[in-house]
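Thread amino acids onto this structure.
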């Protein structure tokens, strides 16, 4: 098809678009997603999610690695603090009920379910993953300094008795982790290899839908206190009018 004229170039572009196939995640029965993305190896995504959103990240082939970072959407100076996310629940290994805490002691999201069991809160991203996260952040008007250490999903790490870190690879194909969003967040995610596991990654699926409420699988006092802090901050944010 000739592209030497505007009409020809337009026709060519439209033909290419018509022939393109965009891969999409499999949607769970009964779910009406507000977002559904399949992120290829080397790709990234940036999305703003409202309070009450349920997010599912999944590893369809058993080969992906999702480097995840969260910032409070309306106040991006408040962001995921991986150290507190490990310290406050007394647990370095993510599982159902684990809070993803901000640097202000508030719960940005809670892990609802996890069928992978292979995640890492200890190593941070590779240089490639950090570059992708910076690109994702820039699409939201953020700068590299706004992006702190991230969590890696679907490629696990365990600490040995001698303190050494050992990669445990991926969980089963189709493994997924569901998050419930407590405060409006900007979610940044990069699909790139892990610092201790440089194998090429597979596709990463990301879907989100409105959940509004949830039954927390965590009743620990530290978690309840963090949720109370979160709810107080949310309530205060809804009443910010200055009296006349």
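Threaded sequence (244 positions):
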């Amino acid at each position: 098809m000739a592209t030497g004229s505007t009409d020809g170039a337009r026709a060519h572009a439209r033909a290419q678009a018509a022939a393109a196939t965009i891969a999409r995640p499999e949607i769970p029965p009964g779910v009406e997603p507000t977002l559904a993305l399949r992120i290829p190896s080397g790709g990234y995504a940036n999305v703003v999610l409202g309070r009450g959103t349920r997010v599912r990240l999944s590893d369809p082939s058993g080969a992906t690695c999702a480097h995840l970072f969260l910032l409070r959407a309306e106040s991006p100076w408040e962001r995921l603090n991986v150290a507190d996310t490990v310290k406050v629940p007394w647990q370095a290994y993510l599982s159902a009920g684990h809070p993803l805490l901000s640097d202000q002691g508030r719960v940005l999201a809670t892990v609802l379910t996890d069928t992978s069991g292979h995640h890492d809160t200890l190593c941070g991203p590779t240089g490639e993953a950090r570059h992708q996260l910076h690109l994702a952040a820039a699409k939201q008007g953020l700068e590299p300094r706004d992006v702190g250490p991230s969590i890696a999903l679907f490629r696990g790490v365990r600490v040995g008795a001698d303190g050494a870190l050992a990669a445990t690879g991926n969980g089963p194909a189709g493994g997924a982790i569901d998050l419930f969003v407590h405060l409006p967040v900007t979610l940044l995610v990069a699909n790139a290899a892990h610092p201790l596991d440089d194998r090429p990654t597979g596709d990463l699926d990301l879907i989100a839908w409105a959940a509004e409420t949830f039954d927390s699988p965590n009743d620990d006092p530290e978690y309840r206190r963090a949720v109370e802090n979160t709810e107080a901050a949310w309530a205060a944010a809804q009443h910010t009018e200055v009296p006349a």
